[in-house]
Structure prediction request, 469 residues.
Amino acid sequence: MKDLLVMKFGGTSMGSAERMMGAAALCEEQHAKRPTAVVVSAMSKVTDLLLDTLRHAEGGDTGGVERNLVELAAKHKICCDGLLKGAARAATQVALDEIIAEFARISNGVLMLGERPPKSVDEAIAVGERLSSTLIAAYLSAKGIDAFAVNAREILVTDAVFGNASPLIDQTREKAQAILGPALEAGRLPFITGFNGATLDGRATTLGRGGSDFSASILAAVLDASELWIWTDVDGIMSADPRLVNDAKVLGEITYREAAELAYNGAKVLHPRTLAPLMEKGIPVWSKNSFNPDVPGTRIVEDSRDSGRGPRAVTSMTNVALVSLEPASALLSGTKVMARAIDALAATNAEVLAMTSSSYRQNFCFLIRQSELQAVTERLEESFSLEFAHGYMHPIDVDLDVGLLAIVGEGMKGLAGLAGRIFTAISREQVNIIAIAQGSSELTIAIVVRKAGVEKAVRAVHAECGLGG
Prediction:
């Protein structure tokens, strides 16, 4: 389809009747110009409420389940009342009640079982997106626009890895073009649930972290869209966290690789997995602010006119753990220890944020998210149980008092003296560098420092690299 625009709205953009009206106005404006498909998240905090309800159910807390169901229904009724009137409001409320009743059924099943089967969890937490898509589609329908809600379960085909499914692109393309294609050709405006899909045999799945953005990029790819616009609550991708750096600026344009590196290292940017379908098709994506739509935002493309100019942004993370392994015996090959440790990391699906090693002592360390620490250490202890038992390896050392800062930019490769300037800027702030990692592509310089020094280090590097507005 020619000139198709896919737009995606996050939870804050769906957070109230007022915010939905704002999002709907943006959809109406673009729909009047060209074919448009929209992916929506649940209302802000709703997914957390759904998960909390399932936790209460698993623990046998009937009262907690009932309180949350009342809160869920009330939140969406208030929104429905704010968006619609008369017969349209009544009909939409019936549809909302039916969806909430499905969630109540699943919650009661978890209550009886005393456990949360992954398949049931995936089916349950997709309810938030179904509710928001129903509301915004009904609002625009009441205004005379041919809008309709679509459950992505009918379109997005995935594998059976519940909680973190991956798309089956060919099957998804077939379904999307069969279901959405004719509707878009006819000038209709679909509102598709983000985050969820289904296996080939119809079992509900979800796409994991960043799932709604990922849904939008998959649909943009299989429908051969011209652009993807991601609407959030910030003006675009910034040179640093504005809460840490006063003169942080919005980047007008960055590359897919820069965006992926920033996201991987803690920035609130599209997850690397989200960018993959867009990169394959060369579809540009915009990061825009639905609260401030007049600001252009940040454009993410294959090759940026701004690339090749050195560092573009600095980002940081503090919810990380530095894990160190060291052989205690020269009989144990450090290379083999590293290989087995990497296998253990792969088995837990942990993301390694940085890794460094010593050539003489054969010890090495890697940085991971604290949320992944327990699974990783358990797997390492299992993998090296004999070595630990016989004293061939020192105990695993875990340091939680650390933070990561990462300097990202396509143009850093071969920029003489840059690393030295960065390290000097950090040392001037009396911040000690614990570990450094830099790949051969030189797209990212990752630096581990003490947690207390992260903010000072970010500001120092941002200033040294001249990234401010």
